[in-house]
Amino acid sequence: MTPPAAETRTSRGPRSRTLDEQRLEFARGRYLAMPIAGAIAWTIVGIGGALLPVALASWVLFIATGSTFGLGVLVAKAIGEDLLGKNRASNWFDTLFFHTIMMSWLVFAIAIPFFMIEPTSLPLTVGILAGLMWIPFSWMIGHWIGLFHGIARTVLVLAAWCLFPQQRFVVIPAIIVAVYLVTIAVLAARPRS
Known about the structure:
Blueprint: H1 19-27, H2 33-51, H3 54-66, H4 68-79, H5 92-106, H6 108-117, H7 122-129, H8 134-141, H9 145-163, H10 168-189
């Protein structure tokens, strides 16, 4: 779907705003709810990995990471963030953001078959593939943090998968949580005007 450059939909009716104006509006958001939710989900995955056999830890990973968006909605409510865009004018970049989330869900189609062959691949595949949404997000907000998140997460998760074969369900979630904590700190401190 290609958005018209001169007109967009809003909750208050049509209004003329360019894509550049919409991108600036989008970039003013805090965007803390989703990384906080991701950090919570991957903390749960790491705890499950430390306490459970791989078969059960896999279920914890599937459920926790698959629930990240719902958890993000709850976190957004708790911190007063408008994650769903109900209290502001519609913006094509909100739509793009939700498409990146959908892209992250679709990567389970890669992770599941690989998991069926090698069960310990799950933290690697989901850890990297679900983190790729941060690359376009970086461009959307005009800030380097998304690039840092996507690249650091990919490199560190791959290294951990190779270096810690017996601890993949613990070390990889710990790395992802650490990357989320850096991301949260940078997003919280980033100027948004």
